[in-house]
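It is worth pausing here to work through a concrete case rather than discussing structure prediction in the abstract. The textbook approach is simple: state the sequence, then state the predicted structure, then interpret. We follow exactly that order.
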Amino acid sequence: MRLHLVRHLPTELNQRKILQGSLDIPISRPTDEILQQIEKNKAILENIKLDRIYCSELIRTQETAKLYGYQDFETAADVNELNFGTFEGGPKANMKGEILKLWMENPKKLVLGESLLAFFSRIDNYINENIDLEDVLCFSHGAVMRYLKARYVYENVNLMNKLQIKNNELLCINIKK
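Step two, the predicted structure:
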């Protein structure tokens, strides 16, 4: 399967470096620069025969898909953003000490609003449900995309929070059965 992922467009909270997680926040008005990047990404995607198009259940991914011109998509809870628990709605800088150390070095041991093992499991479930398809487009979130890149490109999930995925970034990953 070739999985084509787009991280949602920026929100006000992204711009303020506030953790959103499972908060259902709409996107901000796209700048000209963002609209130009959408056109570049669309040019890459337009020659791909997509078997399915997914968005998370959160509005910011669905609004992004619509700006890309996709109206007919399925929602999938398995690609919702990580639930950051008490950190949601606060600055990223609030993650300190042992929590920050686990976040950066061994996320499998971390429990926030959900355990990262449960988070990984639901994303793996999404992959398993779609593995027989050739090309899938998914509008999703930073932590989801970092996990998938760490797992399938670097083959080391402990790297996930050392990776950066920008808003509106297009990432294509080949996933073998």
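Step three, interpretation. Helices lie at 12-15, 32-45, 59-67, 97-105, 116-130, 142-152. The first helix runs from residue 12 to 15.
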